[in-house]
Specification:
The complex is a heterodimer. By secondary structure, chain A is an alpha/beta fold. Helix content of chain A is 32%, strand content 18%. Chain A has 15 helices and 17 strands. Chain A has a 5-stranded parallel sheet. Chain A is globular and about 55 Å long. Classes of the chains: A alpha/beta, B alpha/beta. Chains A and B meet through strand 1, helix 2, helix 3, helix 5 and strand 6 of A and helix 5, helix 7 and strand 8 of B. Strand 1 of chain A pairs antiparallel with strand 8 of chain B, so a sheet runs across the interface.
């Protein structure tokens, strides 16, 4: 009987055949902590009797949720983490690099076949590089900091086979919203989503990240794109010694489910308040007034997203009735966007451009909504109250749809502007 | 012990909104539990009360602040038709007991509830409902009083040990 990619990763780690459903204590390759869940993880590590972390070189620390610190308490938490990093010899990216998920990938901390954990639910994004990556809580992270290992129930996989070429102004975000709408907010709970097919094989890393990022929105433990030449090019540029690029599911692997998609006829998708799986074609909500448009977050804050948005914008201006907030996912993506001249274009058009961080997606720092307001966002969650008032509504969409809507002041099909 | 009922897909932002996450003391988090989404809970909840929900309770963030906020409010048990994975594990790790009951629709707000996790049932209005036990590998953590106590005396872990299904 064949094995899935996820089963192979655990089998390889354990030196014996591991199947979905098995519970194993497995060593992790990398652990990521940030300013929100890190302080509690460190406290738990201490309560567990931890003195020295298992391996400082395998721990990634950075601040992204409240950046720069937006309260004295946030500053205290960051100070506490800085001191912990210094004392333990952990490299701390601090607030200089950007959003955790983007930074871990672009600094080469996740590679095919590796097991990566992070105390943030969107840690599943590292599956874009062929890693098994999953989000954990702070107590689990305390355990990881002490032992460098964690118990995992190895998930079975849902194969998501996608074929066809996207129409203009339609892309990875529309695809993953459409999949979330089908599978539902808990349809993949405790499972892994394996993204495959010709559409994924030709999809740049940016789109793979968008899709793997949102696996958690279906309850999945991990999302993973089988490594290929695109993965190799991206990862080896950052980690020349990385291996595992030949990892693949066996042809006779056993899947919990097999889903097929054809994207040629896919239209821009929008998730409407207040559930990520409440997804409709853009036509159904076109004309909805928006107060704020947010292009950014680990889901869609990359150069490719801003290039798409700039393509839609052209030499027009954003509507004066809309607050347009742009936040690159990392310093690297910020600089790429800046050097391409796009930041200047967005500022001229009326946007606010903030330094890399989670911003409104965190729902705590800034860019929050008043009661009754509507936000159109390229981020990954539209839970009630996610971006401020519980009486506000958040719609999710692609960067193209966000840009088109920021021009008109209402939800707009990006193919029609 | 009284029941507080909730629906499907109760997310972690609803349990404890993002702007309060700089705190991680359960008592302080409890001052904001369900703020904006269920404000009567915060003022009316009494120690030992039980949260009863539908499917996918605790979906969303990995923030352990969510089970801690419930614990701080005096809630020790959540009964739901299903739980989101990270929340479930965080609950076990912090000592909040998550019980899976296939159909919670007949459990009524404000009614008394008796919880017997060892016997594997809950009882309300004279009706007994079977609940699923915590999986065996997590039972050891529950028995130890949470992951911190479980890990406290351990110097190292034995890698690649585990159980089959």
């Amino acid at each position: 009987m064949g094995a899935t990619l996820v089963e192979k990763i655990f089998s390889s780690r354990c030196g014996k055949e591991i199947e979905a459903g098995d519970v194993v204590m497995a060593a992790v390759d990398r652990a990521m902590i940030h300013d929100i869940t890190g302080p509690l993880a460190i406290q738990k590590f201490r309560e567990m009797g931890g003195e020295r972390v298992f391996d400082p070189a395998r721990i990634v620390m950075l601040f992204d949720h409240q950046v720069p610190a937006d309260s004295i308490q946030a500053a205290e938490n960051q100070k506490f983490m800085r001191e912990f990093a210094l004392g333990q010899g952990i490299h701390n990216y601090d607030l200089r690099e950007g959003v955790c998920h983007q930074v871990v990938l672009e600094k080469g901390h996740a590679a095919p076949g590796e097991i990566v954990v992070g105390s943030d639910s969107h840690t599943c994004m590292y599956g874009a590089a062929g890693a098994f990556a999953t989000g954990i809580g702070s107590t689990d992270m305390g355990f990881v900091l002490k032992f460098g290992a964690l118990y995992f129930r190895v998930p079975d996989s849902i194969r998501v086979e996608v074929n066809g070429a996207f129409a203009p102004r339609v892309g990875a975000k529309d695809l993953i919203l459409s999949i979330a709408g089908d599978i539902g907010a808990d349809g993949a709970t405790y499972q892994a989503l394996e993204f495959a097919g010709e559409t994924f094989r030709s999809m740049p890393m940016a789109g793979r990240m968008t899709c793997a990022n949102m696996a958690i929105e279906m309850g999945a433990k991990a999302g993973i794109v089988p490594p290929d030449t695109i993965t190799r090019e991206y990862v080896q540029a950052r980690r020349p010694d990385a291996a595992g690029f030949d990892l693949a599911s066996d042809r006779d692997a056993v899947y919990a489910e097999w889903r097929e998609y054809e994207v040629a006829d896919l239209v821009p998708q929008v998730a409407v308040p207040h559930n990520v799986d409440h997804v409709v074609g853009v036509d159904e909500v076109a004309g909805t007034h928006v107060d704020q448009v947010f292009i950014g977050s680990c889901t869609n804050g990359r150069y490719e997203d801003f290039a798409e948005a700039a393509g839609v914008l052209g030499d027009r201006k954003f509507s004066d009735a809309v607050r347009v907030v742009l936040i690159p996912a990392s310093k690297e993506e910020y600089l790429k966007t800046l050097r391409a001249g796009l930041i200047e274009r967005f500022v001229e058009a009326g946007a606010l451009v903030e330094a890399p961080c989670c911003g409104p997606c965190m729902g705590g720092a800034f860019g929050l909504l008043a009661p009754g307001e509507v936000s159109l966002s390229t981020s990954n969650r539209n839970f009630r109250g996610r971006q401020g008032s519980t009486e506000a509504g958040v719609y999710l969409c692609s960067a193209a749809t966000a840009a088109a809507s920021a021009i008109t002041g209402e939800i707009t099909d990006p193919r029609e502007v | 012990m009284r029941i507080w009922t909730f629906g499907d897909d109760i997310d972690t932002d609803a349990i404890i909104p993002g702007r309060f996450l700089t705190e991680y003391d359960p008592g302080k988090l409890a001052e904001h539990v369900f703020e904006g989404t269920r404000d009567d809970f915060r003022t009316g909840v009494r120690p030992g009360d039980v949260v009863v929900a539908g499917r996918n309770f605790g979906c969303g963030s990995s923030r352990e602040h969510a089970p801690l906020a419930l614990l701080g409010a005096g809630v020790k048990v959540v009964v739901a038709e299903s739980f989101a994975r990270i929340f479930y594990r965080n609950a076990v790790n912090t000592g909040l007991l998550p019980l899976v009951c296939p159909d919670t629709s007949a459990l009524l707000e404000g009614h008394e509830i008796k919880v017997d996790p060892v016997g594997g049932f809950i009882e309300s209005d004279g009706v007994r409902y079977a609940v699923e036990a915590v999986p065996p590998f997590m039972q050891a953590i529950v028995d130890a009083g949470g992951l911190v106590d479980y890990a406290k005396e351990m110097k190292e872990v034995e890698l690649c040990t585990g159980s089959r299904r």
